[in-house]
Amino acid sequence: MSTLLRVEDLQVEVRSRRGTSLPVDGVSFDIARGETVGVVGESGSGKSLTAMSIIQLLPTRAVSMVGGRILLGNEDMAAFGPKRMREVRGRRIGTIFQEPMTALNPAFTIGYQIAEPLRRHLRLGRAEAQGRVVELLEMVGIRRAAEVAASYPHHLSGGMRQRAMIAIAMSCKPDLLIADEPTTALDVTTQAQILDLMQDLQDRQGMGILLVTHDLGVVAQSCDRVVVMRRGEVVEKRGVHALFDSPSHPYTRALLESMPTRNAGKERLPVISDSGLST
Ligand SMILES: Nc1ncnc2c1ncn2[C@@H]1O[C@H](COP(=O)(O)OP(=O)(O)O)[C@@H](O)[C@H]1O
Ligand SMILES: [Mg+2]
Fold it and tell me: Structure pTM?
């Protein structure tokens, strides 16, 4: 399989009056086309900073990438200027975040926001973009797509907003989708539907997915391989079955033990092995 993205020895520094720290320190992994790689770890372990480093959208000027390389295909992304990065973010890497209300602009209709990247990156005309908007909304499982396209984000439920975000992320058929806690704000049923949708889009379009989550149930349902992070470092990197069958790092074992009990997640957890998650 060809490597889509390679993160090599990534280091992210945070500077404050009290000094500097390295909340991401030596993280490496890669993602192939058609593959879902999970980055898992408890809150504060450096997952989001890792994801944001890839798209060069670190949260403030006090936070910066100070070591390592990120390769998109064979190209070192450090060489990409701001203009090239804007194009990469729209066309080659799609992003979905936990809270779509912060990513969607409340002042514009859903249709406008899906059309925007189509017009900017693919240079579609107004009518053509409108047609694509409806197709994209239908693709993400939204019925009455024309009606939804004309509505504003606050008119939609959390699940619908997340579907709209996915439509935006997928609009230019990216090679890679970065999803940071995409289902954390959703109820269990909607969460399962959104994960199914991402899987379905991947089956059809073959993009790689980087799925950031603190939830091992989400990992079990969606990932092929898993990177376990703790305090900015990778403590374990395995195929999903191997990870659940025989976690090698004590931290991974502790994470697995802290998973909500079988009842809560039963319907959405696949049977991984007799000794693993299933009852
Ligand atoms: N904007 C920021 N300013 C200062 N420090 C930050 C910022 N964002 C993250 N950090 C630091 O980096 C650590 C890792 O953050 P993050 O990558 O968001 O963790 P995760 O996504 O795994 O919960 C945090 O615990 C915090 O100490
Ligand atoms: Mg995070």
Answer: 0.90
Ligand 1 pocket member 49 (CB < 6 A): yes
Query: Over the stretch 164-203, which tens digit does the pLDDT of each residue have?
Result: 999 999 999 999 999 999 998 899 999 999 999 999 999 9
| Number of residues assigned to the chain | 279
Q: Residues 209, 35: contact at Cβ < 8 Å?
A: yes
| Spatial separation of the C-alpha atoms in residues 180 and 39, rounded to whole Å | 9
Farthest CA pair distance, the chain: 56
Return the best residue to mutate from 63, 178, 228, 235 for the ligand 1 pocket (most ligand atoms within 8 A of CB).
Answer: 63
Please answer whether residues 239 and 66 qualify as being in contact, where contact means their C-beta atoms are separated by less than 8 angstroms: no
Q: 46 in ligand 1 pocket by Cβ < 6 Å?
A: yes
Q: For ligand 1, is residue 23 a contact (CB within 6 Å)?
A: yes
